[in-house]
């Protein structure tokens, strides 16, 4: 564990907490894409299939449980909690899951490190995570008005990806045989998807203005 | 899985 990996995990954790805070205390999920949240449930469920079979550390197992539990509870809140569900932008959040999942399934079957069930599922989760934010970015683009918590949520998620890239660079130079092209390329694609959002986030921060995306 | 370093990440 290096400082970049820890910073990445902590920003990831913070992003989830910010979203839960918004949903749990303000009872609002306005501007939050249920499609993206459901894709994250699938990402974590397929990636952490090994939670009972491979043990790395208490830290890892605990974080896996937190990410699984929080993503499930966010989707539960948005679907079944009456007050929260009322605030959901259903008409705007129209992205189709299969449009993203199908190419990821095919790609995972074609390109993987090992052709085993767990490994293909793990690889699928990497590909899907790379594009899971797209419905959220489309929703932002459509609603344009972004409240502070939603903006911070996406900013922290993007930060998590950025720190993971630094972690890979660090591990590549400090650990022998640490080469994982699939993880790196899908991670890089994922981070690049945030670039546009980051640009406008920093612009609004610099000018001390409310974040607003161009039409 | 020590043979696959990416699996110790989240």
Automatic annotation (TrEMBL), chain A:
Keywords: Endoplasmic reticulum, ER-Golgi transport, Membrane, Protein transport, Receptor, Transmembrane, Transmembrane helix, Transport
Record's subcellular location: Endoplasmic reticulum membrane
Keyword Nuclease: no
UniProt keyword DNA damage, yes or no: no
Residue ranges of the TM segments: 55-77, 98-115, 121-140, 152-170, 182-202
Protein's GO biological process: protein retention in ER lumen; protein transport; vesicle-mediated transport
Record-linked PANTHER family: ER LUMEN PROTEIN RETAINING RECEPTOR (PTHR10585)
Family: Belongs to the ERD2 family.
Protein name: ER lumen protein-retaining receptor
């Amino acid at each position: 564990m290096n400082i970049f990996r820890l910073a990445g995990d902590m920003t990831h954790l913070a992003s989830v907490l910010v979203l839960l805070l918004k949903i749990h205390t303000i009872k609002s999920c306005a501007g939050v894409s249920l499609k993206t949240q459901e894709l994250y449930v699938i990402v974590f469920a397929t990636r952490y299939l090994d939670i009972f079979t491979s043990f790395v550390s208490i830290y890892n197992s605990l974080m896996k449980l937190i990410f699984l539990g929080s993503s499930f509870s966010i989707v539960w809140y948005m679907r079944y909690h009456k007050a929260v569900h009322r605030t959901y932008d259903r008409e705007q959040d129209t992205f189709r899951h299969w449009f993203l999942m199908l190419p990821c399934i095919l790609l995972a079957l074609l390109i993987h490190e090992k052709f085993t069930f767990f490994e293909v599922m793990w690889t699928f989760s990497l590909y899907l995570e790379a594009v899971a934010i797209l419905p959220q970015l489309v929703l932002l683009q459509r609603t344009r008005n972004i409240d502070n918590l939603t903006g911070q949520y996406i900013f922290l998620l993007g930060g998590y990806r950025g720190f993971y890239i630094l972690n890979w660079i660090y591990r590549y130079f400090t650990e022998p045989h640490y080469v994982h092209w699939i993880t790196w390329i899908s991670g890089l694609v994922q981070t690049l998807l945030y670039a546009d959002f980051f640009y406008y986030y920093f612009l609004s921060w610099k000018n001390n203005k409310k974040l607003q995306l161009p039409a | 899985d020590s043979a696959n370093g990416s699996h110790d990440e989240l």
